[in-house]
Write a structure and sequence with these properties.
The protein has no helices and 11 strands. The strands form 2 sheets. Strands 2, 4, 5, 6, 9, 10 and 11 form a 7-stranded mixed beta sheet that branches. A 4-stranded antiparallel beta sheet has the order 1-3-8-7, with no helix packed on it. Strand 4 and strand 5 form a beta hairpin. The relative contact order is 0.32.
Length: 124
């Protein structure tokens, strides 16, 4: 059974850090581009970072670049999102998603598998 599960969300003060994990089961994440998305109340789902399969190159949207870092541990079949200098505007449900045969895109429809999400709340 193919499954993605996020963990590591929670409540943190502004300026703090969290590390989100995206664990895969039933398939190998290293063959997939993994994206992190978030959705705040009343807003559309937004792609914020991705790590490509193969060379492991990454991409970030402007609002998180320099604060967030995406990485993968193929031995653990897990992708991480290290989030530093968190702001109240980062409050959202965070999702990871896996896309096969895609590269460099954060269009949600391009991704094949999704996790259920984990809540991140940043208090100001």
């Amino acid at each position: 059974q193919v499954q993605l599960v996020e963990s590591g969300g929670g409540l943190v003060q502004a300026g703090g850090s969290l590390r989100l994990s995206c664990a895969g089961s039933g398939f190998s994440l290293d063959y997939y581009t993994i994206g992190w998305f978030r959705q705040a109340p009343g807003k559309e789902r937004e792609g914020i970072a991705l790590i490509n399969s193969g060379d492991g190159s990454s991409y970030y949207i402007d609002s998180v670049r320099g604060r967030f870092t995406i990485s993968r541990d193929n031995a653990k079949n897990t992708v991480y999102l290290q989030m530093n200098s968190l702001k109240s505007s980062d409050t959202a449900v965070y999702y990871c998603a896996a896309g096969f045969a895609i590269r460099g895109t954060l269009v949600p429809a391009q991704y094949d598998y999704w996790g259920p999400g984990t809540q991140v709340t940043v208090s100001s």
